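Minutes, methods subgroup
Present: GH (chair), OT, SY

1. OT presented the first of two proteins processed in the latest run. Sequence and structure tokens recorded below as shown on screen.
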Amino acid sequence: MNEQSDKKTENANFELIKRIQEGDGAALDELICANMGLVKNIARRFIGRGTEYEDIVQIGAMGMIKAARSFDFAYGTAFSTYAVPLIIGEIRRFLRDDGMIKVSRDIKRRAIGLMKIREEFEKIHSREPKISEICELSGLSREEIAECLEATSPVCSLQDPIGEDGMTIEAVTPSRDSEIEKKTDLIALDQAIRSLDETSRQIIALRFYRELSQQQTAKILGITQVKVSREEKRIFEKLRRHMAN
């Protein structure tokens, strides 16, 4: 029932996007109304950073409008999957450009704790910790760690120099088109992984998300390390073909 509902929603989105890209303003209003729940869910992540929630929602809606106008049906992905990074990017850019990011005490506290964990780890192991190791030591998820580190990092001007030759951040910052291309590549990879069989997805999850060795992966799945190695090669080849199409 849920799959049928999701399919129906996506088909409705696609029909509206076609009309939007043909210049139908009414279709744009319909699309925003139909997907406002998605925008609001994303906007809630930015509450407490110095901007009213309703303002954040409006900025997120602008990101959705950009997603609708730039969406390419050749991506072969759901509109919501494509729209999420653009909505988030639009909100973050607004907050940064207006110098209005206000980090909550909880995020500051967590960020300080993460810095202490990283320093202690480097003293003991003489190397920087992996994200997975920070997760284990801090008890935080990857998303929470990323949020803390990003929210407490200094905001730089695009005109700030980054070297003795006077080169600025703007000169080496990828263009908006490059950012979209990277995001669509990630979306395509996500779709390719979803197309794999259950065992292949488990191998991907264990090896590259949990960062386990081939031997550990083999033990969990009840197969040999040689089998894991062969399966990895097969999986990579399948992903390459999927991404090339």
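2. SY then presented the second protein from the same run.
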Amino acid sequence: MSKHIARKRFGQNFLIDYQVIADIVNAVAPKRGDCVVEIGPGLGALTDPLLNRLDHLHVIEIDRDIIARLKPRYSPEKLTIHEGDALNFDFASLLDDSGSRLHVVGNLPYNISTPLLFHLASFANDVYDMHFMLQKEVVERMVAEPGSSDFGRLSVMLQYRFVMDWLRDVPPESFAPAPKVDSAVVRLIPRPPEELLAKDEAKFAALVSAAFAQRRKMLRNNLKGILGGLGFEQLGISPTARAEELSVADYIRVANTLQ
């Protein structure tokens, strides 16, 4: 079979650094019977070492050329290929009745990483942990502290739902073709239910979205249609504050007050 040419429209950059591959697989630390799903297996850089440790692996792949390469390499007993877009995939469908939860891993395409993270957050109750290779800039936003320019909607929503660890940086030369940006590996572990303190998570999400809709504006402008008759003094927030100045706990408190 001819050499696969990376497709820009799928955001393909294939991992070729054996040390980085080993570090990711060791971080995932899969056990034989674990239910693991890999997003975007590509040319199998992570797929092969994961399968060495697993009885079975699920993969989600949108590129039909790559699917055609994967099928003859692995038996259906070892590898289940889900053809399609991970943005539309029902991750809960992979679970059986044993009560076990999913381990999700992947070298995520840069062009869909943010919407994919939001999609995956909706399955947090079904997930044990997630390990991803992402653009370093995205990881910086994920773990950003309040008050920083990187702190935004992605930071608040993911920090509410997950404990996150920045595991390592990955230089462009670890990929083929080499991207023009640095990458990083991050681990996400869902928080237990008792730590999810928003009374209405849909309202919490709507509040955060509105707050960061125009981040240069003060919150009194961005939230005037949401707060109703409540004043900022009642909420313990300065009316001149901007969205990035509030912590995750502040957003929870405001959302619960609105409730």
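Chair's summary of item 2: The chain has two domains: 8-195, 201-258.
Next meeting: continue with the remaining queue.
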